[in-house]
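Thread: quick sanity check before group meeting

JM: Hey all, I'm pulling together slides for Thursday and realized we never actually wrote out the predicted structure for the chain we discussed last week. Dropping the sequence here so it's in one place. If anyone has concerns about the input, flag it before I start.
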Amino acid sequence: MPCRTETASAPRRNGLPLRGRVYGANTPRARGAIPGLWTRSPCSSGSLIGASVTQPGCSACTVSDNLPLRVVVLSCGDLGIEVANALSEDGAVRVVGLISTPYRTPRRSVVGKIRHLYRMQGWIGFPKLVLHKIGTFGSTASSPSSDTSALRLRPEIPHLSFGDFHDANAREAVAKLCPDLGVVAGTYILQESVFRIPQLGSINLHSGEVPRYRGAAPAFWELYNGESSVGITIHRVETSVDAGRVLKQETFSLDRAPAGDPSEYIETYRRSVLRPNGVRMMVDTVRAIAEGTTTERAQDITLAQTYKSPDYRAVRELHRRIRIRRRAMK
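JM (edit): ok, ran it. Output follows.
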């Protein structure tokens, strides 16, 4: 387990214990220290301000004045590499590790696979699948979706890979890093047994303006619904999907009737707008947490809407709506 301690009377903010670390006597947070406040101390003699306890050993923890915020990044793709690299450039942050797993693929029977393929791509998906199998027969090359050759993790950041974030060995690895904060950058839905391991819990990078756009397919449903903007949200991770308190949120303009293929427009928009701004916002948010300057707000659950990945009917309908908008603009 992470090296941390808590008392029943510990002060709380936004429903979470105020967790801190050992700071020099002249630092702003040390001057405002409160008895019972969380501190991160050497594991052999972990302590609370005004209390003395004993913690199990943990070789990952060290203590010095003005410690940077210890951050672990959780990811299923190369977005995690980009986020970890960006965070490591901030002097207030120390990235103690990148933990990665493959995206989950649900187990399906042969009939289930056929139904899923039809739902997502329609009848055209079957010849596409055959052509894909023929093209990759005998090939050992990695698929484009898993190619991270353009992104290299900084050598000082430990990188650990597991089959599932919820496996006991994966959770143990996260705990041994003694993280203050977890940063979620492109994963499947995580259970509380994972995102609560860091002392301050975890925060998530979500491409969507919550609560109206929770869930999957960033930019697709906004374009489908005729929105003129797409949001990016940094929020606390909770058990419900994208339902945590909002730490930072920005919106970016969206062309309601883009030229060319709408699906290609969405992919370009994700790469050129959502991804770089999401990384920037995550770095800003983590820095604010390290400096103790964050503000939070709860989501209005009466506005909540959670979307799934679009099937081929939704994609076809999107193309139809775009054609109507183009005609209306002439």
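AS: nice. Residues 1-65 form one domain. The chain has a mean pLDDT of 79.
JM: adding both to the slides.
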